[in-house]
Specification:
Elements: E1 4-7, E2 10-11, H1 17-28, E3 34-41, E4 46-54, H2 55-72, E5 88-95, H3 101-118, E6 123-127, H4 138-142, H5 146-152, E7 175-179, E8 184-190, H6 195-205, E9 215-222, E10 227-234, H7 242-255, E11 260-266, H8 271-282, H9 293-299
Parallel strand pairs: 5-7, 6-7
Antiparallel strand pairs: 1-4, 1-5, 2-4, 2-5, 3-4, 8-10, 8-11, 9-10
Length: 300
Protein backbone atom coordinates (compact mmCIF):
# COMPACT_ATOMS: atom_id res chain seq x y z
CA UNK A 1 0.00 0.00 0.00
CA UNK A 2 1.34 3.48 -0.84
CA UNK A 3 2.22 5.68 2.14
CA UNK A 4 0.09 8.71 1.36
CA UNK A 5 0.76 11.94 3.24
CA UNK A 6 -0.24 15.56 3.15
CA UNK A 7 2.22 18.35 3.91
CA UNK A 8 1.35 21.99 4.59
CA UNK A 9 4.59 24.03 4.55
CA UNK A 10 4.20 27.66 5.65
CA UNK A 11 6.46 30.23 3.98
CA UNK A 12 7.26 33.74 5.21
CA UNK A 13 6.17 35.39 1.96
CA UNK A 14 2.74 36.67 0.98
CA UNK A 15 3.42 39.87 -0.96
CA UNK A 16 5.56 38.78 -3.90
CA UNK A 17 3.59 36.38 -6.11
CA UNK A 18 6.61 35.70 -8.29
CA UNK A 19 8.53 34.30 -5.30
CA UNK A 20 5.72 31.94 -4.39
CA UNK A 21 5.35 30.90 -8.04
CA UNK A 22 8.96 29.78 -7.96
CA UNK A 23 8.46 27.85 -4.72
CA UNK A 24 5.34 26.13 -6.09
CA UNK A 25 7.15 25.33 -9.34
CA UNK A 26 9.92 23.66 -7.36
CA UNK A 27 7.37 21.45 -5.61
CA UNK A 28 5.57 20.67 -8.88
CA UNK A 29 8.82 19.47 -10.44
CA UNK A 30 8.52 16.18 -8.53
CA UNK A 31 6.41 13.57 -10.31
CA UNK A 32 3.50 12.13 -8.36
CA UNK A 33 3.08 15.09 -6.00
CA UNK A 34 -0.16 17.06 -6.16
CA UNK A 35 -0.33 20.78 -5.38
CA UNK A 36 -3.76 21.03 -3.78
CA UNK A 37 -3.83 24.67 -2.67
CA UNK A 38 -1.86 27.87 -2.17
CA UNK A 39 -3.14 30.55 0.20
CA UNK A 40 -1.20 33.82 0.41
CA UNK A 41 -1.92 36.64 2.87
CA UNK A 42 -0.30 40.04 2.35
CA UNK A 43 -1.07 41.29 5.87
CA UNK A 44 0.52 38.25 7.47
CA UNK A 45 3.16 38.21 4.69
CA UNK A 46 2.80 34.45 4.72
CA UNK A 47 1.75 31.68 2.37
CA UNK A 48 0.43 28.20 3.09
CA UNK A 49 1.06 25.53 0.47
CA UNK A 50 -0.83 22.22 0.57
CA UNK A 51 0.78 19.19 -1.08
CA UNK A 52 -0.07 15.48 -1.14
CA UNK A 53 1.60 12.34 -2.41
CA UNK A 54 3.51 9.23 -1.48
CA UNK A 55 6.08 9.76 1.23
CA UNK A 56 9.33 9.73 -0.75
CA UNK A 57 8.06 11.96 -3.54
CA UNK A 58 6.35 14.31 -1.11
CA UNK A 59 9.50 14.68 0.99
CA UNK A 60 11.49 15.51 -2.13
CA UNK A 61 8.91 18.10 -3.23
CA UNK A 62 8.92 19.78 0.17
CA UNK A 63 12.73 19.85 0.20
CA UNK A 64 12.87 21.49 -3.23
CA UNK A 65 10.30 24.09 -2.14
CA UNK A 66 12.32 24.78 1.00
CA UNK A 67 15.51 25.06 -1.02
CA UNK A 68 13.89 27.69 -3.26
CA UNK A 69 12.51 29.56 -0.23
CA UNK A 70 15.98 29.61 1.34
CA UNK A 71 17.31 31.22 -1.84
CA UNK A 72 14.57 33.82 -2.30
CA UNK A 73 13.23 34.86 1.15
CA UNK A 74 15.30 37.08 3.44
CA UNK A 75 13.97 37.42 6.97
CA UNK A 76 16.27 40.37 7.61
CA UNK A 77 13.95 42.51 5.47
CA UNK A 78 10.71 40.64 6.18
CA UNK A 79 7.79 42.14 8.08
CA UNK A 80 4.29 40.86 8.71
CA UNK A 81 1.65 40.36 11.37
CA UNK A 82 2.18 36.62 11.81
CA UNK A 83 5.00 35.31 14.04
CA UNK A 84 7.75 33.53 12.08
CA UNK A 85 11.03 31.74 12.69
CA UNK A 86 12.19 30.95 9.18
CA UNK A 87 11.83 31.54 5.46
CA UNK A 88 10.16 28.14 5.55
CA UNK A 89 8.60 28.58 8.95
CA UNK A 90 6.85 25.31 9.76
CA UNK A 91 6.44 22.02 7.88
CA UNK A 92 3.87 19.53 9.20
CA UNK A 93 3.26 16.08 7.70
CA UNK A 94 -0.24 14.64 8.06
CA UNK A 95 -1.04 10.95 7.42
CA UNK A 96 -3.76 10.14 4.89
CA UNK A 97 -5.77 6.97 4.44
CA UNK A 98 -4.13 4.00 6.13
CA UNK A 99 -0.80 5.75 6.67
CA UNK A 100 0.12 5.87 10.36
CA UNK A 101 1.22 8.87 12.35
CA UNK A 102 4.46 7.00 13.08
CA UNK A 103 5.20 6.94 9.34
CA UNK A 104 4.60 10.68 9.15
CA UNK A 105 7.07 11.14 12.02
CA UNK A 106 9.70 9.12 10.15
CA UNK A 107 9.31 11.28 7.04
CA UNK A 108 9.49 14.48 9.08
CA UNK A 109 12.68 13.45 10.83
CA UNK A 110 14.35 12.28 7.62
CA UNK A 111 13.55 15.59 5.97
CA UNK A 112 14.93 17.43 9.00
CA UNK A 113 18.26 15.63 8.66
CA UNK A 114 18.48 16.55 4.98
CA UNK A 115 17.59 20.20 5.60
CA UNK A 116 20.15 20.55 8.38
CA UNK A 117 22.90 19.00 6.28
CA UNK A 118 22.27 20.48 2.85
CA UNK A 119 20.61 23.84 3.57
CA UNK A 120 22.49 24.57 6.82
CA UNK A 121 19.24 25.66 8.46
CA UNK A 122 18.69 24.78 12.15
CA UNK A 123 15.84 22.29 12.59
CA UNK A 124 13.43 21.94 15.49
CA UNK A 125 10.98 19.03 15.67
CA UNK A 126 7.46 19.53 17.05
CA UNK A 127 4.16 17.78 17.74
CA UNK A 128 4.47 13.99 17.34
CA UNK A 129 7.99 14.30 15.90
CA UNK A 130 9.29 16.26 18.92
CA UNK A 131 12.44 14.88 20.49
CA UNK A 132 11.88 16.84 23.68
CA UNK A 133 8.46 16.98 25.38
CA UNK A 134 8.66 20.73 25.93
CA UNK A 135 8.88 21.19 22.16
CA UNK A 136 5.61 19.52 21.24
CA UNK A 137 3.83 22.87 20.95
CA UNK A 138 4.92 25.11 18.10
CA UNK A 139 4.53 28.22 20.26
CA UNK A 140 7.16 26.96 22.71
CA UNK A 141 9.70 26.83 19.90
CA UNK A 142 8.76 29.92 17.90
CA UNK A 143 8.29 32.29 20.87
CA UNK A 144 9.01 35.85 19.69
CA UNK A 145 10.33 34.79 16.31
CA UNK A 146 13.43 35.05 14.17
CA UNK A 147 15.04 38.07 15.81
CA UNK A 148 14.78 36.67 19.32
CA UNK A 149 16.10 33.26 18.26
CA UNK A 150 19.00 34.85 16.36
CA UNK A 151 20.24 36.34 19.63
CA UNK A 152 19.47 33.35 21.86
CA UNK A 153 20.33 30.24 19.86
CA UNK A 154 24.05 30.26 20.61
CA UNK A 155 23.68 31.41 24.22
CA UNK A 156 20.73 29.54 25.72
CA UNK A 157 21.00 25.72 25.87
CA UNK A 158 17.19 25.50 25.79
CA UNK A 159 17.17 27.16 22.36
CA UNK A 160 19.66 24.79 20.74
CA UNK A 161 18.18 23.12 17.64
CA UNK A 162 17.54 19.41 17.38
CA UNK A 163 19.66 19.28 14.22
CA UNK A 164 21.92 21.61 12.30
CA UNK A 165 24.08 24.62 13.15
CA UNK A 166 23.90 26.43 16.47
CA UNK A 167 23.25 29.69 14.66
CA UNK A 168 20.34 30.78 12.50
CA UNK A 169 20.80 30.83 8.75
CA UNK A 170 21.60 34.52 8.05
CA UNK A 171 18.60 35.06 5.78
CA UNK A 172 16.45 31.92 6.14
CA UNK A 173 16.43 31.62 9.94
CA UNK A 174 15.36 28.21 11.25
CA UNK A 175 12.56 25.75 10.55
CA UNK A 176 10.13 23.70 12.64
CA UNK A 177 9.25 20.28 11.18
CA UNK A 178 6.77 17.78 12.57
CA UNK A 179 3.90 15.35 12.21
CA UNK A 180 0.33 15.79 13.38
CA UNK A 181 -3.28 15.04 12.63
CA UNK A 182 -5.43 17.36 10.48
CA UNK A 183 -6.25 20.84 11.74
CA UNK A 184 -8.21 23.83 10.47
CA UNK A 185 -6.55 27.22 10.19
CA UNK A 186 -9.44 29.60 10.79
CA UNK A 187 -9.55 33.40 11.07
CA UNK A 188 -12.36 35.67 12.26
CA UNK A 189 -12.43 39.41 11.51
CA UNK A 190 -13.99 41.99 13.83
CA UNK A 191 -15.34 45.46 12.99
CA UNK A 192 -12.85 47.28 15.21
CA UNK A 193 -9.26 48.45 14.85
CA UNK A 194 -8.56 47.98 18.57
CA UNK A 195 -6.16 45.04 18.69
CA UNK A 196 -6.68 44.80 22.45
CA UNK A 197 -10.14 43.37 21.74
CA UNK A 198 -8.74 40.64 19.47
CA UNK A 199 -5.98 39.79 21.94
CA UNK A 200 -8.45 39.55 24.83
CA UNK A 201 -10.75 37.26 22.86
CA UNK A 202 -7.83 35.11 21.70
CA UNK A 203 -6.68 34.74 25.30
CA UNK A 204 -10.18 33.76 26.42
CA UNK A 205 -10.67 31.04 23.80
CA UNK A 206 -7.25 29.41 23.53
CA UNK A 207 -6.48 26.32 25.56
CA UNK A 208 -3.14 27.54 26.91
CA UNK A 209 -4.90 30.27 28.90
CA UNK A 210 -7.97 28.30 29.98
CA UNK A 211 -10.14 28.27 26.85
CA UNK A 212 -11.27 25.55 24.47
CA UNK A 213 -9.17 22.40 24.63
CA UNK A 214 -8.26 22.18 20.94
CA UNK A 215 -7.92 25.86 20.04
CA UNK A 216 -4.77 27.94 19.56
CA UNK A 217 -5.39 31.65 19.00
CA UNK A 218 -3.71 35.01 18.48
CA UNK A 219 -5.15 38.51 18.23
CA UNK A 220 -3.67 40.43 15.30
CA UNK A 221 -3.99 43.83 13.64
CA UNK A 222 -4.95 43.88 9.95
CA UNK A 223 -4.19 47.51 8.94
CA UNK A 224 -5.15 47.05 5.30
CA UNK A 225 -8.72 46.30 6.39
CA UNK A 226 -8.82 48.67 9.34
CA UNK A 227 -9.87 45.66 11.41
CA UNK A 228 -8.47 43.12 13.81
CA UNK A 229 -8.38 39.36 13.47
CA UNK A 230 -8.65 36.41 15.80
CA UNK A 231 -6.29 33.96 14.10
CA UNK A 232 -6.76 30.33 15.15
CA UNK A 233 -5.71 26.75 14.65
CA UNK A 234 -8.39 24.20 15.51
CA UNK A 235 -6.29 21.13 16.27
CA UNK A 236 -9.26 18.77 16.71
CA UNK A 237 -12.27 20.09 14.78
CA UNK A 238 -14.44 17.21 16.00
CA UNK A 239 -14.08 18.26 19.64
CA UNK A 240 -13.72 22.03 19.14
CA UNK A 241 -15.99 22.56 16.14
CA UNK A 242 -15.88 25.53 13.79
CA UNK A 243 -19.38 26.64 14.76
CA UNK A 244 -18.55 26.34 18.47
CA UNK A 245 -15.55 28.62 18.03
CA UNK A 246 -17.53 31.07 15.88
CA UNK A 247 -20.31 31.40 18.45
CA UNK A 248 -17.89 31.87 21.34
CA UNK A 249 -15.98 34.60 19.48
CA UNK A 250 -19.27 36.28 18.58
CA UNK A 251 -20.41 36.29 22.21
CA UNK A 252 -17.09 37.63 23.46
CA UNK A 253 -16.93 40.29 20.74
CA UNK A 254 -20.40 41.49 21.70
CA UNK A 255 -19.20 42.08 25.26
CA UNK A 256 -16.61 44.51 23.83
CA UNK A 257 -19.14 46.25 21.59
CA UNK A 258 -17.77 44.59 18.44
CA UNK A 259 -19.24 42.25 15.85
CA UNK A 260 -17.92 39.66 13.42
CA UNK A 261 -17.71 40.92 9.83
CA UNK A 262 -16.56 37.68 8.21
CA UNK A 263 -14.31 34.67 8.62
CA UNK A 264 -11.99 32.60 6.47
CA UNK A 265 -10.36 29.21 6.21
CA UNK A 266 -6.65 29.24 5.38
CA UNK A 267 -5.85 26.38 3.02
CA UNK A 268 -8.13 23.37 2.91
CA UNK A 269 -10.83 22.17 5.28
CA UNK A 270 -12.29 18.68 5.82
CA UNK A 271 -15.82 18.38 4.45
CA UNK A 272 -16.93 16.84 7.74
CA UNK A 273 -16.25 20.13 9.54
CA UNK A 274 -18.55 22.07 7.21
CA UNK A 275 -21.23 19.40 7.34
CA UNK A 276 -21.19 19.63 11.14
CA UNK A 277 -21.67 23.40 10.92
CA UNK A 278 -24.55 22.92 8.48
CA UNK A 279 -26.21 20.48 10.88
CA UNK A 280 -25.83 22.97 13.72
CA UNK A 281 -27.08 26.10 12.01
CA UNK A 282 -29.77 24.53 9.83
CA UNK A 283 -30.93 22.20 12.63
CA UNK A 284 -31.04 19.31 10.18
CA UNK A 285 -32.78 16.20 11.47
CA UNK A 286 -30.74 13.00 11.06
CA UNK A 287 -28.69 14.47 8.22
CA UNK A 288 -25.96 12.11 6.98
CA UNK A 289 -22.90 12.78 4.86
CA UNK A 290 -24.24 10.16 2.43
CA UNK A 291 -26.85 12.74 1.42
CA UNK A 292 -24.16 14.99 -0.08
CA UNK A 293 -24.24 14.82 -3.88
CA UNK A 294 -20.49 15.09 -4.34
CA UNK A 295 -19.87 12.23 -1.92
CA UNK A 296 -22.12 9.96 -3.95
CA UNK A 297 -20.45 11.02 -7.19
CA UNK A 298 -17.01 10.19 -5.76
CA UNK A 299 -18.28 6.79 -4.65
CA UNK A 300 -19.69 6.15 -8.12
Amino acid sequence: MPRLLESVPNFSEGRRPEVMEGIVAAARSVAGVHVLDLHSDADHNRSVLTLAGESDALSEAVFRAMERATETIDLRVHSGEHPRLGATDVVPFIPLGTTSLAEAVAVARALGERVAEHLQVPVYFYEEAARRPERQNLEAIRRKGFEELRDAIGQDPERQPDLGPSAVHPSAGAVVIGARGPLIAYNIYLNTNDVRVAKAIAKAIRHSSGGLRYVKALGLEIPARGQVQVSMNLTNYRKSAVHTVFELVRTLADSYGATITDSEVVGLVPMEALVDSARHYLRMHEFASEQILESKLLEA
